[in-house]
Fold:
Amino acid sequence: MAVDPAAAAGFSQGAEAYARGRPGYAPEALDWLVAALRLSAQAQVLDLAAGTGKLTAQLVQQGFEVVAVEPLAEMRAQLSSKMPNIDTRAGTAEQLPLADAAVDAVFCGEAFHWFDASAALLEIARTLRPSGGLALLWNRPQFTDALWGASWGALIAPHVARTNAAARWLSGEWQAAFGGAGPFGELTTMVFDHVHRVDRAGFVAQTGSMSFIASLPGEERAEVLAGVAALAEEIAGANADGEIELRYRTEAHWARPALAAP
Structure:
């Protein structure tokens, strides 16, 4: 299956911004998923839709042998420039470049809502070893509580619902693929709060990395990011260290194939 056009346009154009502006995931979330899936050190895992390698790096820190699969060349280039020793492959969730029963777990950050869920889950199940599992993560910004949150929200609000995938994530519709007659059982979920600190350019990059911003026509995108840059100057100027504190909530989910051993 081809990559969603909105994802291809947004993330190809925004790969550098993604690498600079996006946070990793709450370390406690990774620890919780590793324990829930009963993964030992040196486990072999897949980072699916690995992007620029934010999650890949954290999986390596866990001691795992990681294969990173990412469909977009621009994202793979960012990942390989930072982690040249990682086995990085072109591929999609619906047609994985892995053999049957190749890995102990599949991890996927910020991406499952872009997939054809039915086809992707069948492929993921195919690549998992017995008792293997799937871990999904998202970072949900918690910016509204900040003094500047309303101003930032007003800048991006006109563009948020431009993609069906964004709507599936925001509504939680993607979860309907789990349980019932599908290939995977029910999801188990936990949330973990964490903080990411950035400079002015990092704040602009964070917004610019969002697919619905990165895929805007050039002048429209520039107008949004100019507004974000002005806001960054205002926020950072009020802080002694010139940094901006971004609060996130990592949403962590795991599930096993319906016929897997408990």
DSSP finds eleven helices and seven strands in the chain. The mean pLDDT is 90. The first strand starts at residue 44 and ends at 48.
